[in-house]
């Protein structure tokens, strides 16, 4: 699969996860902006939208689901990949209802995330 350079937003409260995902995505040729909170990410949207969002479910303040609901309410169409380290059987269904393109449980293989990002970025409205 040919990789297209895209701007990917990574939202995760864990700095080590943001760093690791950023390195992986940059190594695949993408530009990455990282955010520690959902509030920080939403505040950045007027400055330009990424091609794809990778967002963690469980974060203090706005959860990944809250972020998805807020951007949907604001009329922002943004291909999103939801990631989580918690095994919650209802989370995948909830993510899909909120428009997520893919749902990944940590730890996930690097190629699975890269494939999901390529799919999501190519689906950008």
Describe the structure.
The chain is α/β, with parallel strands linked by helices. Helix content is 40%, strand content 19%. It has one domain: Response regulator (Rossmann fold, 3-Layer(aba) Sandwich). The protein has helices at residues 15-27, 38-44, 64-73, 91-97, 110-122; strands at residues 7-11, 31-35, 52-56, 80-84, 102-105. A five-stranded parallel β-sheet has the order 2-1-3-4-5, with helices on both faces. Helix 2 (38-44) runs parallel beside helix 3. The two termini are 21 Å apart.
Radius of gyration: 13 Å
Q: Would you identify the CATH H-level superfamily?
A: Response regulator
By CATH, the topology is Rossmann fold
Judged by helices, strands and strand pairing, the structural class is alpha/beta
CATH class annotation: Alpha Beta
Compact summary:
By secondary structure, this protein is of the alpha/beta class.
């Amino acid at each position: 699969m040919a990789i297209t350079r895209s701007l990917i937003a990574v939202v995760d409260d864990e700095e080590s996860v943001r760093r690791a995902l950023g390195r992986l995505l940059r190594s695949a040729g993408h530009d990455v902006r990282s955010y520690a909170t959902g509030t920080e990410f939403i505040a950045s949207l007027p400055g330009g939208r990424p091609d794809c969002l990778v967002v963690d479910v469980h974060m203090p303040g706005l959860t990944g689901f809250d972020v998805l609901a807020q951007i949907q309410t604001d009329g922002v169409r943004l291909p999103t990949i939801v990631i989580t380290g918690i095994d919650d059987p209802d989370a995948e269904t909830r993510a899909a209802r909120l428009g997520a393109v893919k749902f990944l449980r940590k730890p996930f293989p690097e190629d699975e995330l890269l494939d999901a990002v390529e799919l999501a970025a190519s689906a950008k409205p």
